[in-house]
Amino acid sequence: MATQETSQSATFRHAFGNVLSFAVLLLIGVMAFSIRLFSVIKYESVIHEFDPYFNYRVTQVRLVFVYGIFANSFLRDQFVYPLGRVIGGTVYPGLTLTAGTLWRILNSMNIPLSVETVCVFTAPVFSAFASLATYLLTKEIKGAGAGLTAAALLAMVPSYISRSVAGSYDNEAVAIFALIFTFYLYIKTLNTGSLFYATLNAIAYFYMVCSWGGYTFIINLIPMHVLLCIVTGRYSPRLYIAYAPLSLNVVSIRMLNITFRREKAASSQASSLISEVKLGIVRVVMVVLGTLLAALVPVVGFNAVMTSEHFASFLGHAANLQMSFSNSVVFIIIHVVALVYYIKGILSPQMFKVAVTLVVSVGMVVCFAVLAVLIALVASSPTKGWSGRSLSLLDPTYASKYIPIIASVSEHQPPTWPSYFMDINVLAFLVPAGIIACFFPLSDASSFAVLYIVTSVYFSGVMVRLMLVLAPAACIMSGIALSEAFDAENFLIKAGDTTKVTQNDVKHEKSEDTIKERSSRKSKKKDKENIERPSLVSQVEKRLLVLPLETSVIAVFLLVLLGAFYVVHCVWAAAEAYSAPSIVLTSRSHDGLHVFDDFREAYAWLSHNTEVDDKVASWWDYGYQTTAMANRTVIVDNNTWNNTHIATVGTAMSSPEKAAWDIFNSLDVKYVLVVFGGLVGYPSDDINKFLWMVRIGGGVFPHIKEPDYLRDGQYRIDSQATPTMLNCLMYKLSYFRFVETDGRGFDRVRNTEIGKKHFKLTHFEEVFTTHHWMVRIYKLKSPRNRIRGKTKKSKSKSGTSTSSKRSGTRKKNPWQ
Amino acid sequence: MIKISLCLFLVSVPFFAIICSAFSEDRPTDRRVLVLLDDFAIKSSHSIFFKSLETRGFDLDFKLADDPKLALQRYGQYLYDAIVLFAPTIDRFGGSVDAASLLEFVDSGHDLILAADTSASDLIREIAVECGVDFDEDPTAMVIDHTNHAVSETEGHHTLIANDDFVNSEVILGSRKIEAPVLFKGIGHSINPSSSLVTKVLSASPAAYSANPKSKLSSPPTLIGSAISLVSVVQARNNARILISGSLTVFSDRFFRSGVQKAGSTTKHEKCGNEQFFVELSKWVFHERGHLKAVNVRHNKVGETDEPSMYRIKDDLEYSVEVYEWSGSSWEPYVAGDMQVQFYMMSPYVLKTLSSNEKGLYYTSFKIPDVYGVFQFKVEYQRLGYTALSLSKQIPVRPFRHNEYERFIPAALPYYGASFSMMSGFFVFTLVYLYTK
């Protein structure tokens, strides 16, 4: 909307606003980066948690070899002992490629950083980028002021911080940036109708696919939005341009996926991953730069994809059929609509009517046929073509009912209400206001934002992990809400000051503004923006002008307070809640700070005291760490693709000693590692995870029955525990010699005395226990050299003088 | 080269390391033997047996079992390679030796010959039990056989048994058939049926039973028939060998020289089988026979000679191993047709019988299955009387590389067709769009 205002001051103000925006953005970026450094400052520059260790290792390996080898690299015996693992086919390459490229660039600039350092700081750097992307996206939706507010909010939203503190080298670190940026480019394309942005969009989406499984969210959200636009009669060629290239990209991405899965299934089909990726890129670029004739390709590609999908769907790769479904339907619809609009343009109204009846009748028939085929395809696959993880998205109880391995991961659980407050804090209250603001007026872009927040709220309610997807949406909405509110309030305050309000007065009032809060500074700029859209602002004005000045001041004050509260909470969350590397733990007690470095102690012990070829069995949570830090081969690791294998370990842990020994021995295991928190009160230890071992093990090996371990419906390790529980390997390895620590075996996690206190191990021997007993390592005893005869040592014999000493030393019954 | 493969072999066979602490690897036969006696009279009354050992090159060290200076090791090193325990009545050993240290001796890979007798002490019985052999708990019981006893003037209780129920194993008893029955007079034992390590070498006839010959049989005897073993051998998991006999007198010169005539049989043998039986058995116990070693475990792709660090699925490979048997003085090629190799990952994916070139080399070749993962070449060779061979060698198998898949397969033609038709279509469209107006 062009303004008549062409005076010198307006230009100056515009320029000043841009510079200010830039400066603020820069500051936001710095803040986003630095707020994530608490972990490095408080602890040290280490990689956190479990999965990041794997990514780090892959990055290391990747840097040693060129990409081609990476795609194929079969990381020898280091990963998942007997089964092996093809890295190229089971890892999203985006993160490692990004960090690797960063490292290379830095090195070529003669900045010699270690790979680990680069990996540690990748996430903070990308969260700064994510803030920038949020600014751009929100700017497209509601203007620069909202953009800056949203960027500032995102820079410190706890939910995002939890996944992107320095050291948290996980896919999400780069994926959230990619997600927001893809959305931005989509909106940008939608607003401008530019093929250039469409191309960028396709590429950004491609990057997203390379980075994180969450890309399915994008590729479901965008068709939904397209459908929404069509249904609400907002179809435009811009929409087509925004959607079609992306959708085509989807096709090639799907090809990539098929390659992934094909390698997983070790079936030798079709061509390679690399060439497929190249083909994908080439095709996308070609298609995007080409014309609408390109629509020829997806149809072919689509058919192929459909069949391949179906062919591979039983392998359960995430949500692919679902993607095909929503995509295909929307894709067809948008073409039909495009065609209708086009024909409407050429034909006369009467002719159009005839054509419509013709097309509708034919179209109906075709649609039904296609639908029937699709339904038949879907119905014929056992899981209806849906993977467990996607199914649990639709039916939140699905996983807990059927797939314990998905339910066992805490981040796949539905979140509790406090976790919303913890993770998005005051944003939760601002979001509804933002949604309302999006409806005044409803544009394509703002409808997209609304759709985004609505779907992400649902998904976050299913899985706590998807809170991460909600966070940017909440930030955008809150940014819009805050900025709109400040707009209105500021305007009112100024209106109160000057009796005669005209729009032009606003500019010379701005210097008198006394509010120092950062977000209000942004809202000033928002004013400037809004001057160029007087119709919008004046609407708001008219309704809000009825409020008295005092109310406005109080409202502004409250909003600032809200913002301040948010900042305080975020800083606290960043500093205290989310910065622990979880490999080093701390606890505060009356006599100061305690540091528990048991994990690294144990891993160091393993790497120094065991043979290079030795295999270490533990619950899968510790697989990646053992691989990366102890450099030993593990039996199962955090990549949970092989349920049976994990179930085997779960079964071993839930079996009696002898049976467990047999299982481990058949897997060539030398050492068993258990994590035990009973002495120091570390709650996420193996006993607390034990129910999942039983469930996952029992899911595959039915002789493990969960009721055997339950007393009154719960797992107990006290004197009420079932004999099965007290005799299972996990109990024994956890509590072996535990009674020696305090004389009565009091477990500080379960707050109870253990059930069986004195026992011996016959097939395992303790080789290492860390300082705080948090990690205990056992070695499998080799089978006895001799097999004893049947004769029991009679009591009379041991009573004789000759053998009393011997029977004392060679006591066979461990349960005495 | 041989050295290197030997090292590999050592690493791959964990148990073998223990053996090596017992023998020199090249000469597994024992050399220094400690003989523990009740009293020195046994030295002369069993001289034939001892002489046969000495003539075979063993260095016998006779000691009283309760010698207070008795010691098995000094400075952590064992002083002996084997023990002959001819002291059935001993209640406790002299010096620092006890049952535990004796079993420790066995567990570190050394051999033991143990003879019990009617008066066997708890100590001897306990050692036997630890090895998997249960002597009859009744201390007065002897093995009685009313059908297979030896014809004798003095013996009226039929406790002097003439038995020829030998184990059917050339490697344990030597290739020469033992013609005459073996005389036995002593206590019987049973072996733990769940134990795969114990073997009955001389079992009693089905008519035998174990009871006190002097008293009347009040209740049915616990040990009856061929469940009774008279002489058993044990090969522990670390290949230590133990001979357990229910009688010491069977080793005596009197028995060695005695003739034998089985009751109810007309053939009278001038000399009973005892000498041949026990001498051959002692050869086995002291590793002069049945000791195998495997060297030069190799595998490579067909057509190559170097051992790769990794295979690809569907590779053709060759596997070979050389197996030798110790003959008492040299390593001879071991010839058998039943050695198998497994290509193993949690379960054997390939199980092939190795072909032999009769010179100790075993070889085979096969195609790796279409499964990737970390595999092992496993040879588990356990035969009665032979030391267990357990070789495993780990090798990862990777899937195809991206450029190893077949290109231009017919199934992909639609894809190619789509690509090229679109390209040409686009080209034509551009021409039409730009130049027709």
From TrEMBL, chain A:
Catalyzed reactions per annotation: a di-trans,poly-cis-dolichyl diphosphooligosaccharide + L-asparaginyl-[protein] = N(4)-(oligosaccharide-(1->4)-N-acetyl-beta-D-glucosaminyl-(1->4)-N-acetyl-beta-D-glucosaminyl)-L-asparaginyl-[protein] + a di-trans,poly-cis-dolichyl diphosphate + H(+)
Keywords recorded for this protein, A-Z: Endoplasmic reticulum, Glycoprotein, Glycosyltransferase, Magnesium, Manganese, Membrane, Metal-binding, Transferase, Transmembrane, Transmembrane helix
Keyword Manganese: yes
Lineage: Eukaryota, Viridiplantae, Streptophyta, Embryophyta, Tracheophyta
Cofactor: Mg(2+); Mn(2+)
Residues in Oligosaccharyl transferase STT3 N-terminal domain copies: 19-477
Gene Ontology MF term list: dolichyl-diphosphooligosaccharide-protein glycotransferase activity; metal ion binding
A cellular component term, taken from the record's GO annotations: endoplasmic reticulum membrane
The species this protein was found in: Salvia splendens
Transmembrane portions of the chain: 20-41, 53-74, 86-106, 118-137, 143-162, 169-187, 241-260, 281-305, 325-343, 355-379, 424-442, 449-482, 553-575
Membrane topology per record: Multi-pass membrane protein
Protein name: dolichyl-diphosphooligosaccharide--protein glycotransferase
Annotated segments matching region Disordered: 503-530, 785-816
Assembly mode: Component of the oligosaccharyltransferase (OST) complex.
